[in-house]
Amino acid sequence: MRLVILGGGESGVGTAILGKKNGYEVFVSDYGKIKENYTAVLALNGIDWEDEKHTEALILNADVVMKSPGIPDKAPIVQKLIEKGISVISEIEFAIQFTDAVTIGITGSNGKTTTTLLVHHLLKQGGLNVGVAGNIGKSFAWQVAENKHDVYVLELSSFQLDGIINYRPHIAIITNISPDHLDRYDYDYNLYIESKFRITKNQTESDYLIYDNEDEAIQNWLKNNKIKANKIPFSLTTKPEKEGAFLEDNNINSTINNEQFTMPINEIALEGKHNIKNAMAATAVSQLLNIRKQTIRESLTNFQGVEHRLEKVLKIQGVQYINDSKATNVNSVFYALDSMTSPTVWIVGGVDKGNDYDELMPLVREKVKAIICLGVDNNKIINSFNNVVDIMVETSSMSEAVEIARRIAEKGDSVLLSPACASFDLFESYEDRGKQFKQAVFNL
Question: Where is the signal peptide (predicted)?
Answer without folding.
Answer: none
